[in-house]
Task: structure prediction
Amino acid sequence: MSKRTKMSGKRDRTRVKLVDSALDVIREKGFYRTTLEDVARRAGMTRGAIYGNFKDKEELFLAVIETRWRPVAPIRHGTTLHDHMRIVGEAVVAAIPARRAQALGALSFQIYALSNGEMRLRIAQLNAELYRRGAERLEQQVPAGELPMPAAEFVRVLHALTDGLLFLRFLQPELITDEVILKAFAAFGH
Result:
């Protein structure tokens, strides 16, 4: 193994540890209250290790989003839109406990992005790429005639519906029940 390969491996491990530590601290404290000192301490490193791997706090947090964001339910080959929407609804309900644990960090980061134009644009660019890939997968799996709108729009609507239902569920579980979530996704499958 060359020295460069060893260095790259060490750098990758350091970045992973910093991202994992940032995620843990954000979950506990939220975005605004998380400091680079908190992240470095959790990782057992110095702030210099953070700056050696990330330009700033925002870049570190974007790395958290990029490496941790996963669709609630991936598109499955050979399913009808009706079946896929049922699967998505069930996956959203199943994801409630895990997403609830991430809610403070996610919401505080969204608030930060809303008040910071540059960060908002960076997130929009990141999401545009995710939507593009999601639309391509959707077009490969579901006949266009089954979709209620173009795939490029539909993936954005599904993301908004998923996040909206999840966040409202956290705030008012007595109103946004499992049944309501399942019915919301089922409505797109008809």
Notes: The radius of gyration is 19 Å. The first helix runs from residue 3 to 29.
